[in-house]
Amino acid sequence: MSKAKLAQWYNYVLGIAMLILGLLMMGFFIKEVAELTILLFDGQLKIEFYKVSEIILETFMFFEFVVLTREYFMQDHISLQNFMYIGVTAMLRNLLVYHDDTIGILIQTSAIAILILVLIIYRLSRRYIEDRQHADQRQMQAFKEEHHGA
Question: What is the model's pTM?
Fold first, then answer.
């Protein structure tokens, strides 16, 4: 089997797996929305605020994962930046729902700060690399124009 056939087969299997994963996540998203709807219209049910907020935050997490699978099919990859956004969101969700332990809160906020710092560094480094590439292209174009006319 040639490398091209193997790569094509791998991409086909990966696409099917991502489709199944996306459908599963969409199912969980619909389940969470249905559960929220039931909670909204059930007037006799006594529910605490943290339970509702946990369900809402889980719904947003499933929505983000569905968007990730959509991005995979639209662009044939998932950006590292989106994974970092989801990491920050997940840590914030965890902090909002489970906030009984002081040391745990400190560790979670430190993790959020580190993820945000890494995201800033990542974005700045990408911008720097793109600026360097454009500068090299401009220099090459200027060199060609100078030496073409000579």
Answer: 0.56
